[in-house]
Design goal:
With about 230 residues, the chain is of the alpha+beta class. About 25% of the residues lie in helices and about 30% in strands. The protein contains one helix and nine strands, in the order H-E-E-E-E-E-E-E-E-E. Strands 1, 2, 3, 4, 5, 6, 7, 8 and 9 form a nine-stranded antiparallel sheet that branches. The longest helix is centred in the first third of the chain and has 54 residues, at about 15-65.
Length: about 230
Amino acid sequence: MTRLPQPSTHGFTLIEAMLAIGIMAVVLVAVNAVFFSALRLRDRTSAAVDRDLPVQQATEVLRRDLRCAMPPGGLMAGDFKVGNVTSANQGIPVAIELYTATGALRADQPWGDVQLVTYALRPPTSTSRSNGGNDLIRSVTRNLLCTATPVVEDQCLQSGLQDIRFACYDGTQWLDSWDTTSGNTNLPLAVRVTLRPINVPPSEAIVLVVPVVSQSRTNQLQPVVTGGGA
């Protein structure tokens, strides 16, 4: 007589199945929380980079212009002015006016690398950027030998600014104004730029300090040694 195989009675109980489902649910919730936290962190990082990128570009252009500032008295270099300045080419108030060797040489343009640059805050021209702040405008004049009204190119470097201030270091103190046509006949030793965006307290303003290589000018005669004495 042949015995038939008995069916297996081994399996999961209801409690074991519910426990496994509960563990899987906890794991899925944890993975979901980590995933969405990573997404939020990515969005915040991307927003911070997009917000700070124009500021970095503006400060880099400012730093380059100040480092390449031309001393006054040259063939194509005029005066260095900071403070209550009226632009010579535009006739409007600006924060700083300087001659700098940052012009790009091009084969299709006869201009050199020395250019006249001014910085000023102006109301935004586009309604899309009308957020209560002003635009930082960099005005560039390339043709310094023009006998007629020169062409001035305006470049918007940064929007949403509340204030911009320049200060010049003379070796002992920071001065809010500098004019090489009067008492300050040389370039300052350094220039401090303070950019303050809107809705930002003064303590959190962006501060940029740029050393300037200056060339001393003097009207003092040097002694000439002839023979065996002065």
